[in-house]
């Protein structure tokens, strides 16, 4: 088994989870899509929890890179937050998919502990990044207030994505994000 096979397994599993959630993750379906036996999937990921944790970890690592790049290109808070929202929007445009960790978070109680840790880490990465962006504003707010605002933005974006996905209409996401702007949640 090669690293390429492992990445193909992760790719198949990611599409499956983003479309139908963690509970729909099936080693048999992954093996069929990748063109290997189920034992081949188990070779790389002995348990569903191992696979779920690897998926969430990989997704978070990709997010860290994207967020770092966004902060490096920081022009102003509003543009940076618009770029941030567009990352979540892009999942909807790609076959009406959800943020991988967002859809897994909706199944939090069904997740093995190792998967919950990775999903929670994704949330922490996003909230910490939003905290950094919001901290660039010099408005005299204390760190706790900024942290709450960062969490509110993250929850709002994930929620907008979920509602838009449920409606099968990306314009719902766009309208919701615009409403966030007009109410002051976004800059």
UniProtKB/TrEMBL annotation:
Residues 3-63 form the HTH tetR-type domain. Residues 26-45 bind DNA. One of its GO terms (molecular function) is DNA binding. PROSITE patterns: HTH_TETR_2. It comes from the Bacteria. Keywords: DNA-binding, Transcription, Transcription regulation. Pfam families: TetR_N (PF00440). This is Transcriptional regulator, TetR family. It comes from Paraburkholderia graminis (strain ATCC 700544 / DSM 17151 / LMG 18924 / NCIMB 13744 / C4D1M).
């Amino acid at each position: 088994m090669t690293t390429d096979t492992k990445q193909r397994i992760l790719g198949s599993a990611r599409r499956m989870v983003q479309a139908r959630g963690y509970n729909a993750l099936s080693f048999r379906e992954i093996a069929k899509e990748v063109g290997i036996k189920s034992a081949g999937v188990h070779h790389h990921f002995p348990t569903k929890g191992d696979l779920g944790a690897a998926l969430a970890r990989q997704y978070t690592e990709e997010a860290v890179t994207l967020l770092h790049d966004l902060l490096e290109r920081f022009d102003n808070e509003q543009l940076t937050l618009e770029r941030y929202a567009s990352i979540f929007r892009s999942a909807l445009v790609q076959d009406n998919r959800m943020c991988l960790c967002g859809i897994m978070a909706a199944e939090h109680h069904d997740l093995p502990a190792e998967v919950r840790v990775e999903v929670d880490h994704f949330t922490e990465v996003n909230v910490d990044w939003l905290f950094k962006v919001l901290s660039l504003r010099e408005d005299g707010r204390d760190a706790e207030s900024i942290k709450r605002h960062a969490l509110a933005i993250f929850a709002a974006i994930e929620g907008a994505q979920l509602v838009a996905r449920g409606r099968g209409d990306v314009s719902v996401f766009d309208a919701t994000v615009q409403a966030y702007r007009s109410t002051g949640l976004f800059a």
